[in-house]
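Listing 4. Sequential folding, example run.
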Amino acid sequence: MIRRRRYSRIGLVLGGGAARGWAHIGAIRALHDAGIKPDVVCGTSIGALVGAVYANGDLDWLEEWVARLTWQTVVRLLDLRLSGGLLGGRKVIQLFADKFNGRSIAQLNMPFAAVATELDSGRESWLQDGSVVDAVRASIAIPGIFTPVWHNGVWLVDGGLSNPVPVSVARGMRADCVIAVDLNNDILNGRDFGGAVVDTPAIDPSAPPPLALRRNGKPWPRWLAPAEGRATDDVRVPPAPSARVPSMLSSIAQSIDIMQVRITRSRLAGEPADILIQPRLGGMGIFDFHRAAPAIEEGRAAVEHMLPAIRARLGID
């Protein structure tokens, strides 16, 4: 029989990473399969969204929904606008609002917190009460991409600006053992700040860009095109460098990646998790929401790889 001997309150921390967040689903599945069920959950950005769905008991629904996503579906959900951010996010938030059905955080099946950042002061904000949807919407408001959220007299944006993997929040929720999932460990084109570059197949910079996404029968605008040059469908393999001028969206995405990695490493150095799980997602862009299946599998694989260490740390038979 599986027994938890060493810790009384396990906290699960789900880091930010946009589309890479679907890996959280696989990680949670693998933990449950191993008999490890967290007592509290907190998250930043996509981690807040997945965490809220998990705390609401709807992980099956989420996994089924993301499995059906295509580029075309994603585009229809992300409403384009030019005020406050490129994307309003109203449609996708409404989808989750219908699922949460007006629930407050206090009504979820387990303690939950989302992390956002105050735009004016830069302070991190721990959202632990009030509307689930409002908390998640604030936590996922990537600057320049999604519009900020007005909440209690301040504008809130993505929690990744201040605390991408919020171990401190789980500690604040009285977790005496923290399992954290960091989605951004190897995403900078295989570069590890002085480490070796991961070998990837070369691409021809003179080749025309792929027309993978069309809108109304026309190519997706070049300035808002999805990331190009991915030489493999493997989410673990970073894309090869390209001589093409990056699209605006690609430039923003890569800049966000750099920021996330820097802040994550700084925060985790000072506030380490007891158990750190790092799926290999260097080949997945932040807008690759249609690639859920391999991301989920990589999240599961990352936990399974760590299971001996997790069992030893938790004192599980």
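-- end of first protein; second protein begins --
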Amino acid sequence: MTGRSVFVTGASRGIGLSIAQSFADQGDRVACGFRSGSPPQGFLGVRCDVTDAESVDAAFERIEREQGPVQVMVANAGVMRDRLALQMTEDDFTDLLDTNLTGAFRTARRAIPGMLENRGGRLIFISSFSGMMGSPGQANYAASKTGLVGLARSLARELGTRGITVNVVAPGFIDTAMTESVTPARRSELIALTALGRPGTPQEVASAVRFLASEDASYISGALVPVSGGLGMGV
């Protein structure tokens, strides 16, 4: 299972970059999707706007040309646009879902034909504890992250007999650039709710993703795997 063609969206930094590095460390060929700025060094950087089907298709065409059909697809691209529901516009809601949920569907749909041809593959969606627990000001974000579970489980049932597993990883409070905007009070509250009493690291999330993509996880499909230090246990 080494030397596979791997595509990670939203991989220019944070959790996505750690996931990409984790696969590269074990000898896989890794493409990092990014929407703006510069791609990370040492990887095949592919510009990919997951809200645009043509951009997704172009990214896959380049990956297929340079490192072969995608065998492991990690849908990590996501944005946040927090506002209380009464202040949230319809665009605030639908635009975020177009990236976080529909964008994951677009990339998965494009990856599936190659996996069917290869008679196997791994689809992994990056969700969030917010999707399981809910969070003030995150009606849009939580809805998008919960939606990934239904998407993954439907695809797991569709694709299981073809050797393709589909799973979801739900990080808890992870120290990344995205969480830097969290207020000190909210940070303290989330850490207090975390059984391990500390934030997680992107590398800890990456380890779970790498496991789900491994042969050791060949009989795991349709699973929601929290990497949260115990935040939100039982939900």
